Amino acid sequence: xxxxxxxxxxxxxxxxxxxxxxxxxxxxxxxxxxxxxxxxxxxxxxxxxxxxxxxxxxxxxxxxxxxxxxxxxxxxxxxxxxxxxxxxxxxxxxxxxxxxxxxxxxxxxxxxxxxxxxxxxxxxxxxxxxxxxxxxxxxxxxxxxxxxxxxxxxxxxxxxxxxxxxxxxxxxxxxxxxxxxxxxxxxxxxxxxxxxxxxxxxxxxxxxxxxxxxxxxxxxxxxxxxxxxxxxxxxxxxxxxxxxxxxxxxxxxxxxxxxxxxxxxxxxxxxxxxxxxxxxxxxxxxxxxxxxxxxxxxxxxxxxxxxxxxxxxxxxxxxxxxxxxxxxxxxxxxxxxxxxxxxxxxxxxxxxx
Length: 353
Prior knowledge:
This protein is of the alpha/beta class. The protein folds into two domains: 3-30 and 271-352, Aspartate Aminotransferase, domain 1, CATH 3.90.1150.10; 46-269, Aspartate Aminotransferase, domain 2 (3-Layer(aba) Sandwich), CATH 3.40.640. It is 39% helix and 15% strand. It has helices spanning 3-13, 31-46, 55-69, 82-92, 107-114, 129-132, 155-165, 211-214, 254-270, 272-292, 314-319, 341-352, and strands at 19-20, 76-79, 98-102, 120-124, 137-143, 168-172, 189-193, 205-209, 304-307, 322-323, 325-327, 330-334. The strands form three sheets. A seven-stranded mixed beta sheet has the order 2-8-7-6-5-3-4, sandwiched between helices. A three-stranded antiparallel beta sheet has the order 9-12-11, covered by helices on one side. Strands 1-10 form a two-stranded parallel ribbon. Helix 7 links the parallel strand 5 (137-143) and strand 6 (168-172). The longest helix is centred in the C-terminal third of the chain and has 21 residues, at 272-292. It is globular and about 65 Å long. The two termini are 36 Å apart. The mean pLDDT is 96.
């Protein structure tokens, strides 16, 4: 998709009232997603719908994420949070298993393992993650892009090291899916919160599991919705769960998934490669401008830009209508479909005083 087409999608779907550079915290909802949520809420309020929402909308969102992630829908489970999905993986590990993760990794990626108490947690600097994999490592759990500072992991190196030592991999794509092309099939598990760069309502999260790894993951959310035939499994214990990753689905937040179906369609219309070029191009412009002001950002080709020690200026920027975030003392700005060069320049203008 060319730049003019990105401009057309932006004009049709988004109308930010601020200079919004905070997608790493929460993405903006496309207009069509908002309308879908409103429509379902009205139906729920007026009794025009027999149930709380549509299973077809959930499956459409599942299929939309599968296309974005490069896997079949049979590998995708839906839910409400990254922590819940990581919890499924944590429950699958035998006692004494070693879990390797980067230092400072996002809490939802590591806490479900840490709280078990019978797993061996080992943390190393992100740059040393691949070399730290060893024969006793059972799982490497890490984010493609670090939440605190936007650093992109050496994905190829970590996958190769894990394969060489027989370790499984769990990738959190919450800060990357939607701008960084994702090959979920290259990992045993991926988890992705939908409310950031996927532009979905909060309450959407996606888990991918390879066919081999599915055999070891327990069915913790054992409700009728995860049965092979849901409407024949509404009473008594479920006799047969879905043969696909759908058996790992959490109970559905229908309002969120009615919006998610349309948000993922918007991203599909633009395409991952075009979004990558657009978002990283704006981020590079911001880094260059920051350097001109004497502020050195964390280096890299990430759509997420962090400036160490500058997080305290978040409130000042917000008062000027520029929305960023303060993470671990870093000023963090994130660039996405709805951002323009004018947004970059406005943020730099405010920082320049």
